[in-house]
Amino acid sequence: MSPSTMPSGLVSPQTLSEFDRVEPITASDAEIEQALSQADLPALLCALAMLTGDDDLLSEDLRPPTPPMSSTISPQGGMGEAAQSKARALALQKLRAYRDAGCPAADIPTTPALDRIMRFMIKDANESYLPILRHELGIPKDTGAPEWHKSQVAPDTVFRVAVIGAGVSGIAAAHRLQQSGLDFVIFEKNSEVGGVWWENAYPGCRLDTPNFAYSLSFAQKQDWPQQFSRQPEIQKYLSSVADAAQIRPFIHFETEVVSMVYEEAQALWCITLKNAAGQHSTQRFNAIITAVGQLNRPSFPQIAGRESFQGQTVHSAMWPQGLDLQGKRVAVVGTGASAYQIVPAIVDQVAQLAVFQRSPPWMLPTPTYHHDIRPGMTWLLQHVPFYGRWFRFWQFWIASEGRLPLVEVESDWVHPVSVGRANETLRQECMAHLQTQFGDRPDLLGKVVPNYAPGGKRMLRDNGIWAAALKQDHVALVTEPIECIQDTGIRTQDGRLYEADVIIYATGFKSSDYLYPMKVIGREGKDLHQWWQGDCRAYIGITIPGFPNLFMTGGPNTGVVVNGSAIFSAECAVEYAMRAIGHLLQSKQAAMDCKLEPFKQYNDVVDAGNLTKAWGVVKTNSWYKNSTGRASQTWPFNLLEYWNLTAQLKVEDYDYISLR
């Protein structure tokens, strides 16, 4: 069947158990001992405690102290050498016994037993954390799955859902919809799944979130090759999830959503689509889940003469396949995340390289940024049941508050740059790192030291390759403002012309223009983009007054920028949408529309919260802020607070529409 004729929801939900598969242990004691020398111990102790049921692995002297995060993270959760030695000895004993017993299948502990293991890792955390942690661990069950099935709650009701986008969020939405038995279809403008990880194929593109934290809770990959994987590996992972979950048959590739218009008489959304041939068609749905992300439409700077350049122009998000930069004069506009990866990747190919910087980024020392996962760690992940889940759980826990305390604004702190005492400590650590990297080049050091507080904009991971690239003789870091672009290159305000064969715009995305460029018309002809007027807002980042049954993922103020990954907030939004749809079916309502008052109250709280963080108060250009200067992308609180907001549906915050 083609995607357009296949009855959606008929494919049985998959367990995706292949992601948990491990190999039996045949290694010698010495080989196991060697692997343990490269283990992440807190997660391994938990995995072995679950495997063996032995609480000796959870003794108080082995508990990781988990010191607060600074510019770096304490290895092994801050465990001392004696604790590490004891942990490795116990692990060797348990793995040897497991091997000698023939590597029997692991029994899944009871919930109290699992909670006891989790408490070992999370130390003195409040009990309120346990539900979110059970969700992220996903043992003994996938707690994010819908608690209802259409065949049970509304077998005779017609209810179709459109998912817009087949990236991370779209894949998550499709899997949850499939689990619920709903009729759904996915529209993807590209020819493959992956979203931002399909589109961004520029040299050096990779994660700056640790790999294991960047995987879906229901498909936890254990065999990442690197600590911060490259774009092809992430794309491969997302493709494998789409295959394993059998959602590809429901995806209409190369199909772009042009507009969405709400038809009040039928309580339906009419979606206008455009295929690869430019032909338009329409389909109608009861609900829409948008999964287009924030980083899906490239942004070009407003520079005079930009169209006059006679050489080749490239945007980082639209990198042409086979682009040859060998021996060419190249200009890179921007020093944000993409430039930070592109410049070191191309520096040895080009004849000349000019890097144009408006404001420098703060850098987090990450010596292992490009490292492969160590062989011993890889072996353990391949052979210890559920070790990958516990390692992901550990990374999630470390990031649950992450560096939030380090970007906190203190009202009694007076400083020309930093916004608080902890922020000043972070600044000093980052300054020391910059001085280490650029101390031998005072001319560059003066250019790379930011004049705003750390956390004011996106912080980048650094392993020394940025400094090494900028120090090369054929590279110039240009901080003089750009005046214009001419046919042969870029002219700065001091009158100098930097000739170029290729200009690369590493200038990011229209991140604050949510749902752009789709036209969205709600109740009574309400135009969403006109109503927003460039200041995009949503209730819990998901729903918007006047737009019934429209659910956003990656919506306004859902970006966790110093304490987690986009996957977490995307899954929260998807699961909230599933709760809402389940409520509609159970209550026999056609649609639900967010009330204006809870929408306003929520946004007031978020706005106030953002003003307590560095990014909300510093005066610097950042994709965290929209054209009004408001921090419209960032979530200012910890992960538990967003989880609590989305883990239950406040039915009283909505008006309901019935056609009966």
Description:
This protein has 20 helices and 21 strands. With 660 residues, the chain is α/β, with parallel strands linked by helices. The protein folds into 3 domains: 25-102 and 109-143 and 373-399, no CATH class; 150-297 and 511-636 and 648-657, 3-Layer(bba) Sandwich (FAD/NAD(P)-binding domain), CATH 3.50.50.60; 306-362 and 414-505, FAD/NAD(P)-binding domain (3-Layer(bba) Sandwich), CATH 3.50.50. It has a 5-stranded parallel sheet with strand order 3-2-1-7-19, with helices on one face. Strands 8-17-9-10-13 form a 5-stranded parallel sheet, with no helix packed on it. A hairpin with a 4-residue loop joins β5 (268-275) and β6 (280-285). α2 (41-52) packs parallel to α3, α2 (41-52) runs antiparallel to α4 (111-122) and α2 crosses α12 (387-399). The protein is globular. It starts with 28 loop residues before the first helix and ends with a strand.
Q: What is the total tally of β strands?
A: 21
Q: How helix-rich are the residues, as a percent range?
A: 25-40%
Biggest sheet strand line-up: 3-2-1-7-19
How would you sum up the major sheet?
Answer: 5 strands, parallel
Q: What's the CATH class label of the largest domain?
A: Alpha Beta
CATH fold-level topology of the largest domain: FAD/NAD(P)-binding domain
Number of continuous helical runs: 20
Q: Would you identify the regions where 5 or more consecutive residues have pLDDT less than 50? A: 1-14
Residues in β-strands, percent: 5-15%
Shape: globular
Which short descriptors sum up this protein?
FAD/NAD(P)-binding domain; 5-stranded parallel sheet; alpha/beta; 660 residues; disordered N terminus; 3 domains
